[in-house]
Structure formats: C-alpha cells, structure tokens
Fold this sequence. Notes:
Blueprint: E1 61-70, E2 84-88, E3 94-99, E4 107-113, E5 122-126, E6 133-137, E7 145-152, H1 155-164, E8 174-180, E9 192-195, E10 203-206, E11 209-211, E12 222-228, E13 231-240, E14 247-257, E15 262-267
Parallel strand pairs: 1-7, 6-15, 8-15
Antiparallel strand pairs: 1-4, 2-3, 2-5, 5-6, 8-12, 9-13, 10-11, 10-12, 13-14
Amino acid sequence: MRATVFLFAALLVACPPADDDDATDEVEVLDPEPAGAPAGVVDGRLTCLGDNAPPAPVGNAVELTGYVRALVDPTADEEPPVFEVEAFSPGGSSLGTSFSNPGNDGRAAVTVPIDEGGFDGYVVVSSDGYVDLRFQSSRATTTTDFSGWAWAATTEELDEAAEAIGLVLDPDLGVLIGAAHDCDAFGMENVVITVEGDADVAYYVEGFDVAADRSYSAISGRFAVPDVEPGDVVIKAFGRLESGGPLTLLSSIHTAVEVGGMTAVALEPRVALQ
C-alpha cells in the first residue's frame, strides 16, 4: 500500500474552530529556520491573510457537510461503510450526531447550534473496525457549506503506511494529519509545519505519496506527523510571503491528539494579526 493513509483526511466533514492564537504586535516568524527550509515563496492566494474573519452567521444553526469513505475505496466505487459523525463544542460537549449515507457515496451532514462566533469545535468520525478520526479547522464555520472528504483507515492500514516509509507506529501515541490552505481552500506549496515548535517531525506529500525526503509541503499542502504524544498540541504553518523574506506565520491551531487515534487539521489563512 502506498504511504498515503496519514494524509487523506486533511479535509474532513466539517469546518470548525477559529484561529485561537493570542494577538501580538508583530507577526511571528520561524527563526532560526530549519535545515532544508524552502527558498521559494508560498504558492497560493493569500490576499485574505490576517483579515480572514468568517462572515457573520445567519440564524442559530449551521449544517456541516461532506463525504466519509473508506481509505481502501476512496472514490466509493463500492458502497462505503456507515460512519457516525458527531460534532463537539471546544469543551467536549456533544452538539449533534448524524450518520453517513452509503447510498449517496458516503455523504454526511450534521446540524449544530451556533452563536455569533459560529461553530468552533471539532468533529469525530467513527465506525467499528476503524480508527477514530477527529477533525478541526483553524477557522470557524458560520455558513452551511461543503467541507470536503474524509477517508477512514484501520489500524492495520496505518501500520502498513508507516512501514512503507520505514516507521513503526507506537500504539500508545497518536497520528496527526493535515493540510495548509490558501484563501481559496487550495493546498499551498513551500510551507513548513511545526508541532509544538518542532519543524523536524512532519512528513510531506508529493502527489498522493508521503515523501520521506521532503522538508516542506508540495502543491497539495498536505503533511503527516506520526507518533505524537497524546494531549493538547499547537500546529503552525509558515511560509515566505516575498522572495528573501522570513518564514512568516500563515496559520495556527490548538488541537488534541488521542492515544491510537488520528487528528486531522485544516490550516486556513490566519484570521487576524497573530
């Protein structure tokens, strides 16, 4: 099996929490730069960077929509399994539960209550035999919109993917996956990912394969971090906004990693200065 399993859930069935870094007087830069940092500028439209607040919500609820499928059949050539999709508040309170529809290629939708800040929690996708998949976005959801696809994997598939790049996963740790997006929700090339300030733990993707020798993102913007300590973590994306400029903070998110689970994050352009 190709070593892609870590990355397929970078866009999940819901678009959740807002950028939660504290505002500062200056934009953070990555200094010192890691070995192998990209020389090129970020490839993506970033005109919304620093001014990316979501629109004001209309009403007091929003529908989170997407598709959930099995990794072994990502295009749903056969009827996919049924997955439970449950949305949670940032504090872990359940806000709504739904199930994917196998007869509609795995489409899922769950309606959640919101206030003026929108939905800024997380979604958990689960089914018997599959690793629980937790998703968060760095930007709140305030409108009903299609959010993407999630591909669920079994423990065996994760182990096989890790072995393909020379790793053995620790069952007492977790896996982190994600993608860095531009203002049009496309992936971005030349992005460096840090987890808890460490820029040496992420693997990046060329096409749909994990590239063990890449030190920054390819055009998909996707990354994977195996063997992450369970608990709260901070993930940040950095890139050059101009030739010769510093690696500047593009996005950040606080999320949680669980034992034996997968956490997926969508890193959208930062809402404010941060």
